[in-house]
Design goal:
The structure is a single chain. This protein is of the alpha/beta class. It has one domain: Mannitol-specific EII, Chain A (3-Layer(aba) Sandwich). The protein is built from 5 helices and 5 strands. Strands 1, 2, 3, 4 and 5 form a 5-stranded mixed β-sheet that branches. The N and C termini lie close together (10 Å).
């Protein structure tokens, strides 16, 4: 299956608008945790808006809520600097994908290693599209382990560079 057919140029953002939040000098651990949750949810909002550009999102508000709820269950930041936010939701008309990159050093996304996340592969699917959803998720879980592809994605200057980097994997 040609997975790249699900990725549209309008769903690629090479410079997220979200920025790391600055800690207050007298910040308590509880305030720090709340600030980092807010930072992550700001990123999720921007990612939801990016996938909405596909034209395949039924209700953007509900879609965002579903993506936030999915992230609250368990983080999708699975490797250093890389996250694969994904959700099965009735708010997706069909399987959709997106790609986003944050400015260095990255953003808080509750990664397993605690480091900032810079690269985001976005996946959304209606619940009845499990086969495609799971296949693409497995493929991307492998792609992000290839240092050459990740390096190419970090250096991409335009959406076509993202496609070219991924084509090197999906031959």
């Amino acid at each position: 299956m040609n997975i790249l057919r699900f990725l549209r140029p309008e769903c690629i953002r090479l410079g997220l608008n979200a920025r790391p939040s600055e800690p207050r000098p007298d910040e308590t651990p509880a305030q720090r945790d709340a600030r980092l949750v807010d930072e992550k949810e700001t990123v999720v909002q921007e990612l939801a808006e990016l996938l909405d550009l596909s034209g395949e999102v039924v209700n953007p508000t509900k879609f965002h809520r579903d993506l936030v709820n999915r992230e609250r269950k368990a983080t999708t930041a699975i490797l250093p600097g890389i996250a694969i936010p994904h959700v099965r939701t009735m708010q997706a008309r069909s399987f959709i994908m997106g790609f986003a990159r944050a400015e260095a050093p990255g953003l808080h996304f509750a990664s397993l290693d605690g480091a900032p996340t810079r690269i985001f592969f976005l996946l959304a699917s209606p619940p009845y599209e499990d086969r495609i959803y799971l296949q693409v998720y497995r493929e991307f879980a492998e792609v992000v382990r290839d240092e050459r592809v990740v390096e190419s994605l970090e250096q991409a200057r335009e959406p076509n560079d993202v496609f070219n980097a991924l084509r090197s994997w999906f031959r």
